[in-house]
Amino acid sequence: xxxxxxxSAVERREDLRFLRGRGEYVDDLRPDGLLYAxxxxxxxxxxxxxxxxxxAALKVRGVHAVITAQDMPGGPPIVxxxxxxxxxxxxxxxPVIADGKVRYVGxxxxxxxxxxxAIGEDALEAIExxxxxxxxxxxxxxxxxxxxxxxxxxxxxxxxxFYAVRGDADAAFASxxxxxxxxxxxxxxxxxxxxxxxxxxxxxxxxxxxTVSGAAKVPFxxxxxxxxxxxxxxxxxxxxxxDVGGGFGARGEFYPEDFLIPFAARHLNRPxxxxxxRRENLMAMNHAREAEVDVEIACERDGTILALRGHIHTDMxxxxxxxxxxxxxxxxxxxxxxxxxxxxxxxxxxxxxxxTPVGTxxxxxRFETDFFRERLIDMVAQDLGIDRVALRRKNLIARTExxxxxxxxxxYEHKDEYDSGxxxxxxxxxxxxxxxxxxxxxxxRRIDGRYHGLAVGCFIEGGAAGPKETARLAINEDGSISVxxxxxxxxxxxxxxxxxxxxxxxxIPMDRIRxxxxxxxxxxxDGYGAYHSRSVVMGGSALLDAALxxxxxxxxxxxxxxxxxxSAIVVTEDKVSAPGGTSLPLSAFAGLSREGAxxxxxxxxxxxxQAVHLAVDAKIGQVEILDYVVVVxxxxxxxxxxxxxxxxxxxxxxLGGAFLEHLVYDEQGQxxxxxxxxxxxxxxxxxxxxxxxxxxxxxxxxxxxxxxGAGEGGLxxxxxxxxxxVANALQSFNPDLRELPLxxxxxxxxxxxxx
Length: 755
What we know:
There is one protein chain. α6 (219-230) crosses α7, α10 runs parallel beside α18 and α16 packs across α18. The protein has a 7-stranded mixed β-sheet, sandwiched between helices. β27 (575-577) and β28 (583-585) form a beta hairpin. It folds into 3 domains: 15-23 and 465-599, Aldehyde oxidase/xanthine dehydrogenase, molybdopterin binding domain (Aldehyde Oxidoreductase, domain 4), CATH 3.30.365; 31-134 and 196-244 and 251-284, Alpha-Beta Complex (Aldehyde Oxidoreductase, domain 3), CATH 3.90.1170; 291-464 and 602-750, 2-Layer Sandwich (Aldehyde Oxidoreductase, domain 4), CATH 3.30.365. The chain is globular and about 85 Å long. The model has no long low-confidence stretch (mean pLDDT 96). Helices cover 26% and strands 26% of the residues.
């Protein structure tokens, strides 16, 4: 009987050490001779640096160095783009430390290395900085005006415009019997992690070797960047992935500190550690989500969608760095979502402003564009007098249309298609689970002083970014098996799911898999990390290839020692056997190891539907979720328990973005939400009534596991569904609902008479 760990709700292996307090984070590391780094950050949003005088700071007892741009021969290195590395972005990339100009509050200007953080902070106070202030570019409207330029040599604050095209949208609009045009906005927020960022670097001068702890998400790529910047061969740098208190797309990208701390360690030949405090985290880690659209939809009178057309404006902050363009690109390419939209013409302008640079945050661009699209669909349904569910059902892409090509994005000329699925199934299941037909009579009704609202929406989630992932299997001295993987762990449970995949591939019990080792650059020859919901698809498929290579090598080695053909060898959970009954324990082959890889240029697409029943207290603008249902089809499911956790966790983040989270700047580019007293987050008691259902009816045809990425689906649809449900509840007030987040003050304002 074959193993069946894949598909089983196996409890997470990694949780026990966390529950017992045995996780090891960067701040737990304290090697001998450790020094601490603190960073002087700009308090001005925009200005020219006249001088940075570190004389007094260097005299503070316990200070070992103060590093500025002047200490870097040839000038500070630049943080490059990791994804979409287009030449247009080059002039807008960030130096690792301010050089001649500051462009956002929080930009590093100097690094103090001291015996303690407290001493370093005292030294920061002694650094004298003179900056000639320049007018701040506070939002994309100011950026568009060109009154103040972040990069004068470029002559514009627009770094690039992406174009998403399918069919002939202009022709469709010219003959369409119904058109609606709207302006919609999403607020700025980010993937706040429990553990702020941290880096520790150690330089071994005798061996010419640099060890960097605190790697996350994409350690191999970050090693390539650092090696080039610091002038070392890649194999002279080891990036170590410690436990991470959340990633969410932001943690683990290459930031200025990922160069500054290794540079300081090498400069002083001492271990150096930097741990971000929460204020730094709010002002310096990648932001996301801020976008505005001016979009039109064209339909037949029966609700058949003909075309989407419009302009999108995204606030990129002060610099283009690593993956900052992904969200903007995704807004345009995926605005049609899971619906059949034959004609698309969208452009998205990437505007530079004097704010913290942006990057990816779980469901980048998709959260924003789902709000835009789903809100627009409800408006269309109301205009045309069509039931909201019927309108969606009419336009959902059919199973028979798969694979379904979507809009092409340019520049970068990226073409894509949805791989498989039946979108009607998940919609039907969602409606049934929330009892839509019974609750429909509650729409807009006032019961016990609160207005009830319902909404439903459909979504897709992209996954499996290539081009490659690598895995390795090895036999330990006790005959157990170790798994090494190029994917990273950022809380998604990879140690458990990879053990399930390996156990099934080798047909051994899971307890024979001694450990799953991930992320660090010493484990496999190459790796690509954890982003774009890729770990299971890419890493798991690489693991299947490694298992084939491993079993072939083991059979060959056993055949030589047992005197038979490799094809005659039988491998069981703890031994290898030859005809005639002779055998050897697996421990006799300790050290045998084989690597495998999976190469892929296509994406998987999970999909699903969400529905909510909520109640609004119009007097105070308070919204309570009474029931929320998410249904996801994620192809072949490795572990339904961890998948459900991913869906619920991402949904809570989506609800935080829909109701609470908002990074606010004033007109001078000053961050006004610089603490968790101002930047509100969901708590455990805020959203208790959330339910998730997972389906595996339609495996992906593009990988041997049949799996699809599924770490973001709960979040993607939340903004649109919540907005439509609030509008539905307050329909008697004819609310002007075109912007997220729906804070209590905004909800209350919708119920007030308009001037």
